[in-house]
Backbone:
C-alpha cells in the first residue's frame, strides 16, 4: 500500500522529468540562439553594456527558457566549440563534427583565446601563427635564436 507522502513524491518527480524534457533545446531554437548571440556579441564584449540585460533581451525570443537557461546554453555551446576546436587541432585524433561549429567559428574564430596570434617555444623561439594578420612593419620575428655555449 502506498502512503500519500510517497504518492506526492512520485508526482513531483514526474513533474521534474516533464520539466527537463520540455527544457531541451531544439535544433531550430539552438540555431536562433546562436544567431541572436552573434548579433549581440559586440555588446556582450563592450563594458558599457551589462551582459545580464543582453541575455534577458535574447531570452525574450524564447518563451520556454529563462535568462539563466539562455546564458547557460551559450556557455555550454562555447565550451563545446572550444573542446572540438582543441581536439581537431591535435594530431592523431579523429576529427569531431558538430552541426553548430561553423556558426560558432564565425563568432569565436578570430578570438585570440581560441587562435593565438603567436606561440612561444623554448626551442624554436617566437613563432607567429599563420592565421594572424600583422599590420606592423617588423622584420621576421620567427627567427630562431642562437644558443649560447
Residues:
Amino acid at each position: 500500500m502506498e502512503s500519500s507522502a510517497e504518492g506526492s513524491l512520485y508526482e513531483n518527480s514526474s513533474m521534474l522529468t516533464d520539466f527537463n524534457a520540455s527544457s531541451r533545446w531544439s535544433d531550430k531554437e539552438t540555431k536562433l540562439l546562436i544567431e541572436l548571440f552573434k548579433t549581440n556579441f559586440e555588446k556582450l564584449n563592450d563594458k558599457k553594456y551589462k551582459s545580464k540585460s543582453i541575455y534577458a533581451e535574447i531570452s525574450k525570443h524564447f518563451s520556454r527558457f529563462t535568462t539563466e537557461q539562455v546564458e547557460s546554453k551559450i556557455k555550454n555551446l562555447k565550451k563545446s566549440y572550444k573542446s572540438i576546436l582543441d581536439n581537431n587541432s591535435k594530431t592523431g585524433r579523429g576529427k569531431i563534427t558538430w552541426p553548430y561549429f561553423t556558426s560558432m567559428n564565425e563568432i569565436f574564430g578570430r578570438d585570440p583565446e581560441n587562435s593565438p596570434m603567436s606561440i612561444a617555444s623554448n626551442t624554436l623561439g617566437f613563432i607567429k601563427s599563420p592565421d594572424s594578420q600583422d599590420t606592423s612593419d617588423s622584420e621576421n620575428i620567427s627567427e630562431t635564436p642562437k644558443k649560447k655555449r
